[in-house]
Structures are given as C-alpha cells and as structure tokens.
Amino acid sequence: MSPSLHEVNPLLRNNPRHAVLGVDPGLAATGFAVLEGPSLDRLRVLAQGTVRTESTLPVSRRIGLLYDRLDGLLSEYPVKGIALEDHFSRRASPGAGLMLGPVVGIVALLADRHGVPLLPISPRELKHRITGTGAASKVAVQRALAVWLGNGLRIGSTHEGDAMGLAFLGYSRMVAP
Predict the structure, then answer these.
(1) Which of 60, 124, 131, 174 is 20 to 30 A from 139 via CA?
(2) Which residues are CB-contacts of 45 (< 8 A; sequence separation ≥ 6)?
C-alpha cells in the first residue's frame, strides 16, 4: 500500500515543523527554496531566491558567498533534508559542469555539518515526478508547482523554479519514502 499525501514519515511525525531545502546549484546563480508543512498538500514556502555571484570575483570568494547564504538558511529554518539537483555530466558545456563540483561539494558539506540527509535528484526525475513526463519544459514544471503549492506562487527565476521543484520532490521523499 502506498502512503497517502497525509501520511508522515515516523521520523518527522513528532515535529510539526519540518522543512526541506531545495538547491539548484550553479557558480553564477544558485537557486534555493525552503518548503515546510505537515503534508504534501499543505506545504508553504518559507524562503526562495537566487544567490548570484559576480564572475569577476575569485572562485574561492564566490564559493564562500554561496556557503554563507545556504548556511544561513539551514540555521534559520527547521530543515530536515536538502534536495540537490544531481548533474552527472554536462555534455553541452563541460566547463560549466566542472564548476558545479565545488558548489555541490559545499552543499554536501553543509548537509553533513547540519546533520541532515542529502537527497540527489536528477533533472529528468524532477520533471517526471512533478509533471508526469521527463521531457517537460521548465514552464510546465512551474505550472504544475503552482497547482500543488497555490496559484499565488511567484517564481523569480528558472533557478528558483528548479529549487522549488527539488524541495517539493525532496519533501515527498522524506514524508512518504
């Protein structure tokens, strides 16, 4: 029997405030979203945004800025898991793919430091689980999220939209694994 939208993982049941941080990693722009609620059909957005770093800054400084912002979110909200977009390779732009390594590394480090699980999710799985097809467009994913999270949902960038979807799917994994 599969769990319903109202069933809660026993590890989360005693904590009415459980949240998931979704992270769409990128060195130039990292999207984030924190969703919280007692069940999938009663989620609310606690935080969302895009951390942008200037290409003129040294990579170490850019990574530091991302670390500080994500660490702040993990300290501020009752996050119980981090859903991270998992990129195995980027054939279209291998240089950009290589720059994801440090960003993914800091997210993994933050998960460890804050004692929360890291939930890797592929772009195809994200699209398929939210829209029903792994080939869905970003717009289709955002429309489906608006249905789940409410039509008043405002998404400021594609990075935010991806992070929102990751948080939603990560939450569903934690509530009904």
Answers:
(1) 174
(2) 33, 34, 35, 149, 153, 164
